[in-house]
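Table S2 (text version). Query chain:
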Amino acid sequence: MRLLVSAILFAATLFPEQSRAVAQDAERGERLFRRCAACHTITEGGADKVGPNLFGVVGRDIATKDGFRYSKALLTLEGSWTEDALNQYLLSPRTYARGTKMAFAGLRKTQDRADVIAWLKAQIKVSSSDEEAPAGDPAEGLAENADLALLPESPGKQETYDGCASCHSIKLVVQQGMDKDQWLETIEWMVEEQGMDPLENDLNQIISEYLATHFGRDRPNFPK
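Corresponding structure-token output:
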């Protein structure tokens, strides 16, 4: 009986009901969404990136965004993205959808999840009203992002940002000063030992080549 009670309490902690969440703050959610903008757009009709466009995601059936190739982990899920489902997914994507390709570790704070969901909902209301749309999609401000601005213009810049920034500060990444072989070994270690999803296609080669070229220890861009 004690084990059963402990399991129930653990599950309640891992997947808190959205109804028990604190009041939602869409304005704060907009700022938090900038963490997501490396992989997602949210404007109506926005392009898919590493992840699908999220306009209208609240209430939409899971894995049904036209034209986006979802992982098997999401394709096997049933139901729709209710606020409670989004709350659980944002807490721990890999726990909610085991095998998901989404590398984001999750938002541990209830308030953060509630605010991001509020921002997702707010976009539909703005689009369907006569109000002036907010000034730009957070993704459109990526050029002003300090981490993205740190990366020199060169093939592989966006792939490096998209592949690394969802879990790490780019400032930390580029300070490693490793050569290509070392980066390839690091990526392999992260997949095998840290649970990172394997990079598709030749992304590991593109990212390791970009970082080694621009941020090796003998390169002028290496942060001092």
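Notes on Table S2: The chain has a mean pLDDT of 77. The first helix runs from residue 2 to 14.
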